[in-house]
Automatic annotation (TrEMBL), chains A, B:
TM annotation in the entry: none
Organism of origin: Phialocephala subalpina
Name of the protein this chain belongs to: Nuclear transport factor 2
Listed InterPro entries: NTF2 (IPR045875), NTF2-like_dom_sf (IPR032710), NTF2_dom (IPR002075), Nuclear_transport_factor_2_euk (IPR018222)
GO cellular component terms given for this protein: cytoplasm; nuclear envelope
Entry-linked SUPFAM superfamilies: NTF2-like (SSF54427)
Taxonomic classification: Eukaryota, Fungi, Dikarya, Ascomycota, Pezizomycotina
Length: 124, 124
């Protein structure tokens, strides 16, 4: 396997750039077997996932990644844990979030998202 | 597979109880193939992982889980994302953290930790 940290970093940059530019285009990163849990609400399959992401109640969003850690996972997968902050619409206060991804090889030299869990983090 | 959310909840309760009581005993939850990334420092194998956890510079620790989300993962595994807060020693201010686990079946009806990524979360 290529350098998993490098792949994880490239993937994460691409994912959030795409999310913040046009999140409908994220469909290409998921498959029919993919799962998303967004603020404890779960959907499966690329179509359902993108419908969920598209329906989120904001127009503009900007993610800023603070930390990224990656590990090799079974089946030549990659597990990623991101922490960061995001700003939506005209809101001035960033919200902290954490997001865990499991990427799997797509058989064509790239990776797709199998597991995706997103959660806002509130102060203790 | 049994209910993955139920297994994830039971596992997480057991893990943090054990961590807060006697973290050396966590060895039983890891295997030689397991990986831990703790605040971006990585170790592999049950022995190395428990040595790392045991060497953390606090005596007393108490985790409080705020949220837990789980998804089925490849190979009958379970992926878990936890957010929570922890208190160490006589410190009065809790620290926020996030932790992602990937559990795999151990072939004997239970699960072990394959991937474990822990990260403190600081305010945006």
């Amino acid at each position: 396997m290529a350098n998993f940290t490098e792949i994880a970093t490239q993937f994460t940059e691409f994912y959030y750039n795409q999310f913040d530019t046009d999140r409908k285009q994220l469909a290409a990163l998921y498959r029919d077997t993919s799962m998303l849990t967004f603020e404890s609400s779960s959907v499966a399959g690329a179509a359902g996932i993108v419908e969920k992401l598209s329906s989120l109640p904001f127009e503009k969003v900007k993610h800023a990644v603070s930390t990224l850690d990656a590990q090799p996972a079974p089946n030549d997968g990659i597990m990623i844990l991101v922490t960061g902050a995001l700003l939506v619409d005209e809101e001035q206060r960033p919200m902290n979030y954490t997001q865990a991804f499991q990427l799997l090889p797509d058989g064509a030299g790239s990776f797709f998202i199998f597991n995706d869990i997103f959660k806002l983090v509130y102060g203790a």
